[in-house]
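A quick aside before the break. I want you to see a complete sequence-to-structure record at least once, exactly as it would be stored in a machine-readable document. Don't worry about memorizing anything.
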Amino acid sequence: IPSKRHGKIFRRLRHTYFNVYRRLFSVVFSVNLIGFFVLLWQSRETGVNHLNVAAASSANIMAAILIRQDYIINLLFRVCWLVPLSAPLRLRRAMAKVYEYGGVHSGAGFAGALWYLFLTVVLTRDYAMAVMKSIPIMTTSYAMLTLLCLIVAFAYPRFRFLSHNVFENTHRLAGWTAVGIFWAQTVLIAQQLRKGTDHSTWGTIIRLLPFYFLLITTVHLVLPWVRLRKMTFHPERLSDHALRLHFKETMAPFSGIAISDAPLKEWHPFATFPTPLGNGGGGSLIISAAGDWTQKVIANPSTQYWVRGVPRTGVLSMACIFRSCLIVTTGSGIGPCLSFLMEPSRKQPCRVIWSAPCPEKTFGYDITEAVYRVDPRALVIDTRLSQKRPDMVLLTWQMYVESGAEAVFVISNPSLTKKLIYAMESRGVPAFGPIWDS
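That is the input. The structure line, written in tokens, reads:
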């Protein structure tokens, strides 16, 4: 295997510390920083107007919500699919990173929280100067600021990984509450502004820019829950460590769904893959024992689970803009890989490396056979038969060179995924994989 390109510091900066996710975060945050200084400059004589700050905060919160909507994510992927195979590899490589859109979400969310902090400072100043003497407005301001601080704190990667359920519940419940408080505060501010005018409270509200940002935000918070429904599955226990859930609905290509048995508490996303042609319609998903919830489901599967929204396009869908690719996966990562490998519309050749303990015994003959149907020369590694763990970096490089693939896609645990992607990218190989940003 060749040496890594460039110096260590440059490699770390480019592929780790300043990856696409962080670049998007930086762009969004920089735009807001410029806006902040422009606002200060324009308000140097008259003082900062709290309505402008409220508009900036609500606009960023709206952007953070919109970029997480299923239909917008699917649209982003479909736009990137339009890039032809004849386009330069450099362009296709850049477009394939579309799955790091979460940088926009975190950048806008963090900026929105900082704008709201500034709004609270401005309102506190106005309260102290008796410009807007309203205890309810000040109470809602500090209540919402507290909630935004909680959301930002629990979204920090280290806290998020330590207790994902706490992060998810805080993000959802505190987020809903914060938006509700923002609405209450908007009404309270409108009531203050209408004093001495001929406008009603409603007439004042519709003249406020934050009203429209909040309206769009609220609609999109509700939208996924409008499609909350129970979906019927036929469970097939593959082993004590894996479960396959079959369903009859037809899913969009390369997509996944999140399922739950308690929709207000936790959701678990899984990639879906189609049933082979000739075996009926529908598809299935694989659940592997990776925590308390998955172990409970495998031990006692249900025939119905909650789903919401629309199926969301996944990382592997971007393999369709490359002439050929190598897919590297471990354990139950084979499920998401099958969403691409078994898609009837797929045209390009694919090679597969799959490492798992007792693959056929754990995941069943059908899954193993499906891998070999796609790639008769697939490298399927039974880690129970090995004296030591396989060198996945070396194996990936060797098959990448042997197959002449244009890109490598990795679906594994966070540690190995990051390791393989860094190992390939630092040697000039286009490499992609999930980033666990939510």
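Two observations worth writing down. The first strand starts at residue 229 and ends at 232. The mean pLDDT is 92. We'll return to this after the break.
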